[in-house]
Amino acid sequence: MRVEQAIAGAEMQLVVFELGDESFGVDISRVQDINRMQEITEIPHAPESVVGVINLRGRVIPVIDLRKRFGLPDAAHTKDTRIVVVHLEGNLIGVIVDAVLQVLRISADIVEPPSPVLAGVDSRYLRGIAKLDGKLVILLDLDFVLSRREQEAISEVLAEQV
Amino acid sequence: MLQFPGMTEEDIKVFLAEADEQLQYLEDGLLDLEQNSDDPEVIAQIFRAAHTLKGSSATLGHDKMARLTHSMESALDLVRKSQANVTPALMDLLLECLDMLRILNREIATAQDSGADVTELDERLLDVIESVERQASAGGVAGGGGVPPMGGAPDEAMWAGQFTGPADVRVWVRFVRTCPMPSVRAYQVIDRLSALGTLAYSEPSVDQIEAGDDVFDLVAVVEYDGDALEPLIEMVRNVTDVEDVRVLQVSQIGSARAAMQATAAREAAAPAELAAPLGVAAGGATVSAARGAARTAAGPPVTAASTTTVRVDVARLDVLSNLVAELVIDRTHLAQLESKLAEKHGGDELVSELNRTSTHIGRLTTELQEAINKARMLPIDNVFKRFPRMVRDLAQKQGKEVELIIRGEDTELDRSVSEEIGDPLIHLLRNAVGHGIEAPEERIRAGKPARGVVRLSAFRQENYIVVQVADDGRGIDPDLIRASAIRKGIVTEDAAARMSDKDAISLVFSSGLSTAAQADQVSGRGVGMDIVRRNLEKLNGSISVDTAIGRGATFTVKLPLTLAIIRALLVSLGQRIYAIPLNSVEEITRVETSDINTVGGREAIRPRGEVVPLLWLGDVFGVRGHDRSARLSEPGQKVFAVIASSHEGKVGLAVDRLVGEMEIVIKSLGTFVGNIPGVSGVTILGDGRVALIVDVPSLVRSVVDERNAVSQC
Questions:
Q1: What pLDDT, in 10s, does the model give residues B133-170?
Q2: Residue B60 neighbours by CB under 8 Å, 6+ apart
Q3: Which is the catalytic residue, given B105, B431, B540, B583?
């Protein structure tokens, strides 16, 4: 069994979610929690993609709208809308997605580097693309998506205030 | 990168906790000694602290600390035996050693070598010891009860002398390289040790020795119940082919077994180097130099309290606090559900049963919360204890005589507050010594005793902790402050003249004055006072001053008992709820739209005739439908204004409704969101919703800044 795995190469376990027409995957070790949509308290003057904060069992965590971040059109929240709570540099961050589809175990072999042109999403956000039968799962670079751009956005806000 | 092989992180933590305590004993004792140089109790306390530090640092394997504490102990021993006097030079030297020990302690805490060298201090200590020795021999006092010889092999006397047995003893044995059957010899050593006490541990193990491994170095830990080390050393040395024996008393019997296993393992790797500084050289010298074998209580102090207290990581307490906070929220929710159910199915037996249970859970939760809050409390002594030394040094540097009197050091406060209160107090104490207390000659001229007094006291007042720093110095002269403030353009001459003395004095907290005051030694009370005040306000605290010329000044700092929980007024804009810290709320008024005037281009109201600028919370936070234009478009609309204040002034906050008063748990927005203007934090309400906490000082400042900008145009 162990030998087979070694031959098949490293395995990855992904939480796959839907945003617009695409499927995205993030490493399961980064995911703390998946929650139904709940009331979000808006934060005035926060960076644009920070929708607000929620109460996650006594912890206050910021929530990001990934649609806004990716420049996708707004969509009404449905019963499938979820807040995926992920770890980011010691913080917990909630990410709003259209729906969570499944948890997927894939071999690293089937991951290809991102192609520069991909419908609607900035390729800098991507770590690669996993090709499954008839379906593409885009592997997100969470640190980049949430951290660097966020930092830029924050410094923009701060710059405006000064 | 410093490494302590064989020591677990837990061992190091235990060491650090103990070392902090001992360093504090040392410092307290030394400062005490300076005042009462002949109190044997005090000398014994210092001696014990140095001794304990020596033992534990040697166990840990920090040679520098072990070496320095060893020399300190030797010097203190002379004081203890009244062979050396407590001179100012010796005090300074010992205090320097203490500073060095703190540096070394930090080395261990951070695992970073500081590059600090103890050689110089060590040599100065040895000089002191030698000179005492010379005097002693010159005066013919030497002999049986004389001074233990230092230098060559000082340790033997130290250890043999202090051994009061029974104790854990670490024995290190080296066999000559040419020894044909080292394992047999090792076995003989083990055998003899076992006859003298209980063998706790050995490296190599007895099994390995029996298996015939070549053993040239053997480390063993014995729970030795004899009352002197000499017989043990003799017995081991008499084994054939033993080249060297070193013995070290480790601690009270049985208490260090686990730690020793680690140490022993490490020492087996490099025994000569590590064991040498503290071992007992048994090679040539015999241990018959057992002076004062019956000396009392030289071992580490054993406190009775140690059996009833447990050290708990603060992170664990934080986890507990968070869990209880969640429980409180759920309890509130449960009560709400229960009352809804009661409405629906009034007389149902199940509902009343639920009611009983939910009430009980409510009570338990409250008790649990109180218990955990208590567990987070520390006596303020933790903050105060570093001040005597600081004040002493400051006073000495400035040629002043200052006595620091501390009261209420057992007042308890939340850990979070005790972390924040230190810096402001340092500032106040510095000012008291530096600017408040006069030089001795000046004091005598003014008919005061040459020695000034600074009183530091703490007490509880309702949900606040109050700390006062009072000096009997020259006091603050309101006229000097006025002059300085006019010079710096903080107030006009006119305004200054109209200002009451009290208002003038509180100008020491305004930002412009501090720089002026720094240059101006007489009124120099303002050094960084604005920052002190701002930092305290950030924590929902306050500072005030009371002074009389020539009689001194008293600064009073007031902080909430815990920074995590405050009382707040909840207000709403539509469905949104905001919390305003109650300590900044002055009053609440209902204002007709017709009461709103425009003063200097800004809306203002006049509660009690005073002009207070009005801010619409809906505009501040950009809440559409609840901002100024929406509210004013409804004719006859009444508006609630919460009059809130900081030291910079007042502001009226216009809101839709008042929700009530409640204790809230302050939470930070976190680094990801960062600082949001007008928001000091968030809290979770009883129904689980998140509410923003309004940052009153920053809103007041924004109004003040705006006004200044306008007036400058």
A1: 777 666 544 333 333 333 333 344 334 445 666 677 77
A2: B4, B7, B11, B12, B15, B108
A3: B431
